Amino acid sequence: MVLWWWSVWAGTLVVDGARWILTLDAYDEECFLLRTPTTHSSRRRNPPQPVLTGDYGLIDDVSADPLLLYVTQGSDERVVYQTRGRPSDTFRLPVQLKEQYWLCIQNSSHGPEDHHLEEPEHEDGRTRRVGLAYRLEYDHNQHDNDDDDDNNNNHHRLPQEVQSHADEWRTQSGDIHDQFRNLQSHHEYLKVRESNHRALAEHNFSAVLIWTLAEAGVVLTVACAQILYLRRFLERQNSRMY
User: Fold this and answer.
1) Burial of residue 163 (number of CB atoms within 10 Å: 0-12, 13-18, 19+)
2) 240: which DSSP letter?
3) Interatomic CA distance for residues 10 and 23, integer angstroms
4) Stretch 87-100: mean pLDDT, rounded?
5) What residue spans define the domains of the chain?
6) How far lies 137's CA from each of 14, 44, 68, 94, in Å?
7) How far is Cα 158 from Cα 12, in angstroms, rounded to an integer?
8) Averaged over 133-147, what is the pLDDT?
9) Which of 138, 124, 60 has its CA nearest to residue 92?
10) What kind of architecture, by CATH, is found in domain 14-195?
11) What kind and span of H or E run contains 35?
């Protein structure tokens, strides 16, 4: 089963994003169609590079060997990114304007370009639950010179050392922001995993309680039957004596 999702960018720093919890059967995949805008909405002379970032995480306590995530570009679906066999990972890749991309994750180790591989495509045939998040945004590590040009025109250009420190702080703050969002996604996946573990624990506790009550009922029934049997046995013995 393949799902697709339309995404159109706006002119903000983080222009689009989503997070899903997906259930993938063996050899199944989920794909989302992302379309970039035809023109850049920024008014800067050197607009930043658009990038596709995101993360994913395996929720179930099973092997991640058959798990595969890949991104294709264009109508010919050329693979531009691919990773496999990891229980969790982050991805970041530059994208182009006026283009379409497919973001796919599948419960199978063989991707579009892996038909030549000889290892098994899927070993256990088990269903897997995966958390997937993506963001379409502009690269915060790319700094333009618009402010420098304006400062040159106004004869108030910042010192080179101050400008380099400002660019470094912007880059570090952007990296921290990315790490925070990845951590937030990771916590969301952990919440789902803990919810699954709690449901399993409650199911086990309920099963143990039912078994204990059933066992207690059987013991009480046997005890009552023994008492009745001994009573009748003693009554028969007394009747024979008298």
Assistant:
1) middle
2) H
3) 30
4) 87
5) 14-195
6) 4, 16, 23, 10
7) 26
8) 67
9) 138
10) Sandwich (2.60)
11) strand 29-35
Residue 18: strand, helix, or coil: strand
Who's near 186: CB < 8 A, 6+ residues apart? 55, 57, 88
Give residue 142's pLDDT.
58
Tell me the pTM: 0.65
The sign of the CA dihedral 122, 130, 138, 17 is: positive
For CA atoms 185, 187, 191, 197, the dihedral sign is positive
Q: In which element (H, E) is residue 211 found?
A: helix 160-241
Residue 29: how many other CB atoms lie within 10 Å: 19
CB 30 within 8 A of CB 105: yes
- pLDDT tens-place string over residues 229-238: 998 888 887 7
Q: Mean pLDDT across the stretch 75-91?
A: 87
Token representation of residue 45: 């002379």
